[in-house]
Task: structure prediction
Amino acid sequence: MIIQTLKSQNLILLEVISGSKSFGLNTPTSDTDIKGVYYLPKEKFFGLDYIPQISNETNDEVYYEIGRFTELLLKNNPNILEILASPEDCILYKHSLMGRLKTEDFLSKL
Result:
């Protein structure tokens, strides 16, 4: 499954600009990093086709399946927390379900 398939099948839950552009540290030569969250159709999720993460060939676009995303949130993964805490002007798409996940619910001393 490729990123364009996720988008064409409306499986994206969250899509954000991340990295230097989201922190205002970009330079004229900076690339645009996109991160996101998706869900899989039941037949893929429960079958042998489970895909926890998808990226493009340059890793400038990386998307995490919602279960994997939550698993990494629970481990306080900084890259995943960054996605969840993206500034409003960096959010390209946000499904209402994603509004239920709050950064403060996952921060710990871990």
